[in-house]
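In the design runs reported in the main text, the only information available to the sequence generator was the tokenized backbone. The following block is the verbatim input for one such run; it is reproduced so that readers can re-run the procedure and compare outputs position by position.
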């Protein structure tokens, strides 16, 4: 009986082997087909390229402010292996310096680089995303945007204008500006015609001055010809390049009005939505790199430029008098409270901004500020 079953068992084993082998070959063919499809799709994705235009509020390749968009474009090109090209246009090439917001919002171009506080007439809350008097410094500003809820508020508000914002650089504490006359008291501010945007301009106006907003490329001529009596711009690195020392004698500090001004990249919403997720990530990473790179650049270059302004060009470096700084601070609070009362977005942004600033100040008293005090004391003891 055992001998009669043996051939059947052998045949069953052979049949099973053939069946499994057939299934294996079929699965292998299927896997190869799927892999070929994936390679084909990958090749098609690789072949897709994006050509974007970025307009800016600065002269083409202008040191500092103008270097951030160029750095951004370079990083995007490198990370995409040449599949994503952003062409940077300086102020006036495609749109005026202060036409960046509208050009990106309406889709005339895909991207822009500028300062949010230029749009305070459209969005009063936008000023917080650049700087407000006696506000956050650069380190605190970046922290608020990335980890304190600032970016979420910024994107919510800009979404209504068809824009996606990203932080686009920070100069660190700026200078108070260039003046054609000495500022010895609050009385000297009366009648002063000065280029100063944002909340700072409103503060100056309340103290008897006249604030105007002029694009950077026009400032030297305006100051030299007397159209304005004073101007703030950025700090020594940029100001030396613009040659302001040839048009004004007095250089005042500190930059009470812009303690940590952030710049912005803006992306048209439809252009952003057209990008695949990996390219959106490239844009965000490149913007964040450019944001930090600008701060590093100004930190490295400002003192060298200041020494040249003072020691070579004879610029008179002055600290604003205490009573003037006190008046600026007092009036800043008045303007701020009025703006908060008049706009719900300003109120919400200020609550987030102010809460974060209080926490940062509390810790910085025993960290950054305490270290600066100890370092300065150690230098004096030597």
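Verbatim output:
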């Amino acid at each position: 009986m055992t001998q009669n079953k043996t051939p059947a068992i052998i045949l069953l084993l052979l049949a099973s082997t053939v069946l499994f082998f057939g299934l294996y070959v079929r699965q292998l063919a299927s896997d190869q087909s799927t892999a070929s499809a994936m390679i084909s799709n990958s090749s098609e994705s690789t072949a897709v390229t994006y050509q974007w235009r970025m307009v800016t509020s600065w002269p083409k390749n202008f040191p500092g402010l103008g270097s951030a968009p160029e750095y951004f474009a370079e990083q995007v090109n490198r990370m995409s292996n040449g599949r994503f090209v952003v062409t940077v246009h300086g102020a006036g090439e495609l749109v005026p310096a202060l036409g960046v917001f509208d050009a990106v919002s309406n889709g005339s171009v895909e991207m822009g680089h500028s300062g949010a506080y230029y749009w305070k007439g459209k969005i009063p809350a936008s000023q917080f995303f650049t700087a407000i008097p006696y506000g956050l410094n650069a380190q605190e500003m970046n922290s608020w945007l990335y980890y304190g809820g600032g970016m979420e508020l910024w994107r919510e508000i800009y979404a209504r204008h068809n824009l996606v914002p990203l932080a686009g650089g920070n100069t660190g504490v700026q200078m108070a500006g260039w003046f054609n006359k000495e500022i010895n008291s609050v009385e000297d501010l009366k009648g002063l015609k000065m280029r100063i945007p944002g909340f700072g301009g409103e503060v100056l106006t309340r103290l008897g001055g006249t604030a105007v907003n002029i694009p950077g490329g026009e400032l030297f001529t305006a100051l030299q010809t007397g159209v304005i009596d004073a101007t703030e711009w950025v700090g020594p690195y940029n100001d030396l390049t613009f040659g302001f020392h040839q048009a004004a004698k007095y250089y005042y500090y500190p930059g009470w009005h812009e303690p940590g001004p952030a710049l912005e990249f803006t992306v048209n919403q439809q252009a952003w939505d057209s990008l695949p997720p990996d390219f959106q990530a490239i844009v965000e990473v490149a913007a964040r790199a450019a944001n930090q790179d600008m701060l590093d650049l100004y930190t490295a270059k400002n003192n060298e430029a200041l020494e040249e302004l003072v020691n070579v060009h004879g610029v008179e470096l002055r600290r604003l008098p205490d009573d003037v700084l006190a008046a600026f601070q007092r009036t800043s609070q008045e303007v701020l409270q009025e703006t908060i009362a008049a706009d719900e977005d300003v109120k919400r942004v200020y609550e987030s901004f102010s809460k974060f600033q209080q926490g940062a100040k509390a810790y910085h008293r025993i960290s950054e500020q305490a270290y600066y005090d100890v370092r300065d004391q150690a230098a004096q003891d030597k």
